[in-house]
Amino acid sequence: MVKNVHRLVDPARLKATLNELLVIDPARTAIVAVDMHRGHLDPAVATEPVPADACRRVVARTRALLDLARERRMPVIHVVLRYRRHPEPALERLAAPFKRAVDLARQRLLGERSSLRDHNVEGSVQTQIMPELGPVEGDLVIDNKKRLSAFYGTDLEILLRVLKIDTVVVVGVNTNTCVLCTAFEAANRDLTTVVISDCVTSLYGDDLHAAALENIARCFGWVLSLEEFRAKVEAAAPAAAARV
């Protein structure tokens, strides 16, 4: 009896081949920066903080990415988590059963400084986008994200449609939650989905960060370094010039 043995492809070869096939048209590409706010990335005030060294790296690399995008006239869309103030503390935040259970168990998902109840309440400094990243004139801001996906309950899909975008470059925090969920949602809408590995991080640990990137790259999207993405954009320049 012959057994049906399922053979996995070589992941490195798969990713290399797919990366060669990816073409970036800046005119149809937007950067979606997810939760790059002080609540995660400013160690002085963060309520769900990324490690300080990761903050510095991600902010610096994302600044370089956004400078490139603005130079090439790619829309920059900041999507920020923000909860309403309400007499019942953390009404929106703790509506999710898992988060409510964590709170009831008096546990902390992210270490001693994390705070489920105080994270990104409207009007707080935590909801402010990191000043190094914007917004600058011409950037677009969506500030009513409530759950993991940057699409769910926001007008991101409408905005991408009116901008005639077919390629979404996702960056931000956390790689394994909001970035991953947003990337899934982009792929579900048949958008070319790219994540920049230099410009994402996770406060849940390097293992989940790496697993999320591998999941994206092997299943439904592209994971590029900043320099790989820059090369794709520069390769598109001659073609764009020829169309003028």
Describe the structure.
This protein has a single domain (11-243), classed as Isochorismatase-like (Rossmann fold). Helices cover 39% and strands 16% of the residues. It has a six-stranded parallel β-sheet. Helix 6 (175-188) runs parallel beside helix 7. The protein has eight helices and six strands. It has 244 residues and is of the alpha/beta class.
The first-level CATH class is given as Alpha Beta
The portion of residues forming beta strands comes to 15-25%
What is the SS-derived class?
alpha/beta
CATH superfamily: Isochorismatase-like
Query: Which overall shape is indicated by the principal axes computed on the Cα atoms?
Result: globular
Number of domains: 1
Mean pLDDT over all positions: 88
Helix content: 25-40%
Kindly report the CATH topology: Rossmann fold
